[in-house]
Write a structure and sequence with these properties.
By secondary structure, the chain is of the alpha+beta class. 31% of the residues lie in helices and 24% in strands. The protein is built from 13 helices and 21 strands. One of its GO terms (molecular function) is serine-type endopeptidase activity.
Length: 437
């Protein structure tokens, strides 16, 4: 889940002096590394900076950033002295070409990689561009959402009608190689960037599937159009609403769909969140607000300083509507928030299998004021999220009220609602709810 309001870009600020210092440490270290690429390295180490210094691309860091650096004590700077020593030795003795931009990027990525958190990464321009396309309606790639389990890159869900879906990719598959290069959980963003690219090009991936072993697949990239909402009436009283992910338009589209179903006679709803990998938390809250009374907590987060942030319902017209939610192992992040909130308030019955279990929040620093502004960015895990009852779902997921497994043999066939045991059970429960009203 990314804690943001429009696209996956947020500003994460703390009010106390200590928290500001922590933020500035990251800013200044990036400044240090960039400035280290010119002849002022020795000057920097001695803490004698000019008021304004331009990087290699000509964009100047403001005097504000430099004055923050000057407030650093020598002990803080000494911790990173070895970086400059190594750089100096490489420039003096390495018998080959040195790309200073790559040198700086590798040093920064080394820091984030050392945390062993696949969701905390430094992104170069290309990687950051890929991230920002995920909630803008379309992009070119394979059409999958991935997460990390036990340091493995795991398929959360393939998108409907995507190249990955057509190639037989399933939730739970583990990506072991992309174009012949081995990848693990710490290479999550690298693997994602390798799978995206030009339309019509092939991507070779090796996946591992339980009970089948390794499988080599060649998949052609295509434009992935993110149609996130599908709605229809099952019969004259029961509506069906499927949400594929939470992009910047999902909240508004769900409200329109609900109003249309209501006008067609909906008295009960089946909400299908299977294979929904999540997305924008703001849109998740907008969707939940249709079903949860105004002012009630939908989700809350707690950061390392024990600061709590609550996301509350805006209120809606369907707070008494009987709901059945379909979940599976591809139900992740924001879709787990929605499922957990409706479960906690006893607003819905969950049917299917246990959800993925991603209960951490990331923020993305990308603006000039954050020390960036050059097209690169830093994505950081900043907090855990909790359902209204205080349940953190990270690495454990949500168990459904009624467990129904989807048969393995049906994954390789065209979807048919008539033989879907999870849907059939949800329909049965939806009818029971109507009869009890």
């Amino acid at each position: 889940m990314l804690d943001n309001d429009k696209i996956k870009l947020t500003n994460y600020n703390h009010s106390s002096r200590d928290k500001k210092n922590n933020k500035f440490k990251w800013i200044i270290f990036v400044v240090l590394l960039v400035l280290a690429t010119n002849a002022l390295t020795a000057f920097l180490v001695t803490n004698a900076l000019p008021k304004e210094t331009a990087d290699s691309k000509g964009s100047a860091y403001s005097g504000k950033h430099i004055s923050i650096f000057n407030s650093y004590d020598e002990k803080d700077i000494e911790q990173f002295k070895k970086l400059f020593i190594v750089k100096d030795k490489l420039e003096k003795y390495y018998n080959g070409k040195i790309d200073e931009n790559l040198l700086v990027e590798a040093a920064i990525k080394g820091m984030t990689n050392s945390l062993n958190d696949p969701y905390t990464v430094f992104m170069n321009k290309k990687e950051f561009e890929y991230l920002t396309t995920e909630t803008e309606g379309s992009y070119v790639g394979l059409g999958i959402q991935v997460g990390v389990v036990d340091n493995q890159i795991v398929i959360i869900a393939p998108f409907e009608d995507s190249p990955a879906k057509k190639a037989g990719i399933q939730s739970g598959d583990v990506i072991k190689k992309v174009n012949g290069i081995e990848v693990t959980g710490k290479d999550l963003d690298k693997a994602v960037s390798m799978m995206k690219g030009k339309k019509g090009e092939k991507v070779n991936i090796t996946i591992y599937r339980k009970d089948k072993g390794d499988m080599d697949l060649s998949i052609v990239r295509d434009e992935i159009k993110l149609n996130t909402v599908k709605a229809e009436m099952i019969n004259d009283k029961i509506g069906y609403l499927q949400i594929f992910m939470f992009d910047e338009n999902t909240g508004a589209n769900v409200k329109k769909a609900l109003d249309k179903l209501h006008s067609e006679g909906m008295k009960s709803l089946i909400l299908d969140l299977r294979q929904n990998p999540g997305g924008l938390v703001s849109q998740c809250v907008d969707v939940a607000s249709n079903f949860i009374p105004k002012g009630d907590i939908v989700v809350y987060t707690v950061d390392k300083y024990n600061h709590k942030k609550e996301y509350k319902s805006h209120g809606g017209k369907y707070t008494d509507l009987p709901i059945v939610i379909l979940t599976d192992e591809g139900t992740a992040s924001s879709s787990e928030i929605l499922s957990g909130a409706l479960r906690d308030y006893k607003r819905a019955t969950l049917v299917g299998t246990k959800t993925f279990g991603k209960g951490v929040v990331q923020s993305v620093f990308y603006r000039r004021i954050d020390g960036f502004g050059d097209g690169t960015a830093l994505k950081v895990t900043v907090s855990n999220y909790y359902t209204p009852s205080g349940d953190n779902l990270n690495k454990k997921g949500i168990k459904p009220d009624v467990e129904v497994k989807y048969p393995e043999e049906l994954y390789n066939k065209d979807y048919n609602r008539e033989i879907d045991p999870q849907f059939k059970k949800a329909l049965e429960i939806a009818n029971d709810k109507l009869n009890k009203k």
